[in-house]
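As promised in the previous annual report, we have extended the structural survey to additional targets. Below is the entry for NADH-ubiquinone oxidoreductase 213 kDa subunit.
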Amino acid sequence: MVSPQSEERTYHPQDAIAATIKSTALTGGVGLFASAVQNTLAKQNVGPLGIFVRSGGTIAIFAAMGGTYSFARIASANLREKEDPWNAALGGFFSGSILGLRARTFPAVFGYGSALAVTLAAFEYTGGTLWGHDKDRNVDKYEKLEKLRTTYRRPAEETISEIGEGRGIYGPGYADRRRERIKEAYGIDVPATPPPAS
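The corresponding structure token record, generated without further manual editing, is:
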């Protein structure tokens, strides 16, 4: 019998066109915001249409970079039938190359593409965080959470013996022990609290 950890995960193809349209719209919106900021900070009065006329290239660059990254990453994953950092590197290279096209030199196209490819591949490799992630893609998340939940479960008696009672942690018979301690320390008889009527 093959264990679930040793067998390969099945790749499910994704819709590259729908994801490209969605990410183009999203990054185009970010580009529109950046263009509006550029228009606001302009020294001469260019009017509200300056967002599209004067700094409209910013919108186009942002939208093209987002759409290209999304399409290249998903198309690569669909063709290779694998979900790994190489897809992000390929998408990052094409996306960064678009940013380098503004400089109109081959070194800028290759440099921006390579820099973004390395950055996005490293980001994908570390599990989507810059602090690293030791996520094993072959382990089921439910099983992992169950293991964590049962690993740290300790008997209540052990916890109470280590840290003592109080602060919301009370063992069985706590009220009786508390009454006895108060009687010994202060000589006061504390009446037993009746159980709440419900």
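Residues 1-7 have pLDDT under 50 and may be disordered. The chain has eight helices and no strands. These points will be discussed at the next consortium meeting with the crystallography subgroup.
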